[in-house]
Amino acid sequence: MSSADLALAWLLVVLCAVSGAYCLRQVRRSGGVAAGEAVMAFGMALMAVPLGNRDGWQAVVLAAVFCGAALHAVWLLRGGVHHAHHLVGSLAMAWMALTAAAGSGHGGGPSPVTGLLLLYFAGYVLLGGTRLVAAGGAVQGTYPVVATELTRACRLAMGMGMLTMLLMM
Q1: Residues in Cβ contact with 92 at an 8 Å cutoff, skipping those fewer than 6 apart
Q2: CA 115, CA 111: separation in Å to the nearest integer?
Q3: Whole-angstrom Cα distance, residue 87 to residue 84?
Q4: Residue 20's CB: how many other CB atoms inside 10 A?
Q5: What pTM does this model have?
Q6: Which whole number is the average pLDDT over 10-17?
């Protein structure tokens, strides 16, 4: 791993960990929804740590955690389809963990599943960035508005982190 790749990996770890910490702070206010986001963010941070190959038990444990997060996301779907992103994110993380465990190096490009996930998260990041910029003009410094924008920024950061991890597969 080159020094630039190593630096990018550690920046991704920090970005995801900070997003996770922010989500933990928001758990009470969100009625528990932010707990799922915190698990995802900390899990992404853990997966981004540049430790070399993730084979064996580490990948299986990570996949189990993300499958549990996917079940939680299915439970959240009772509250509306807007929780579907949590399900996609959880399943994407489980996919990356299992792919790492299988040690699949796709010489001919990404697998179809990885390609679909790349398209989804690229669209999510573009849409989220557009919404954040559009809402940025309305921010007037009051706490609830700033907290909402911070939440959107954390979600955007996690989406960019997911996109980066998928690109690095």
Answers
A1: 117, 120, 121, 162, 166
A2: 6
A3: 5
A4: 23
A5: 0.78
A6: 90
Q: How far apart are CA 101 and CA 45, in angstroms?
A: 17
The answer to whether 118 and 71 have CB atoms below 8 angstroms apart is no
Q: Residues 111-129: what's their mean pLDDT?
A: 94
CA pair distance 79, 105, nearest whole angstrom: 38
Compute φ and ψ for 105, nearest 5 degrees.
-110, 105
Q: Indicate the domain borders of the chain.
A: 3-168
Give yes or no for a contact between 101 and 56, defined as CB atoms under 8 angstroms apart: yes
Q: What b/e readout covers 125-159, taking b as 16+ CB neighbours within 10 angstroms?
A: beebeeeeeeeeeeeeeeeeeeeeeebbbbbbbbb
Give the integer Cα–Cα distance in Å for 40 and 17.
10
CB proximity list for 85: less than 8 A, separation 6 or greater = 124
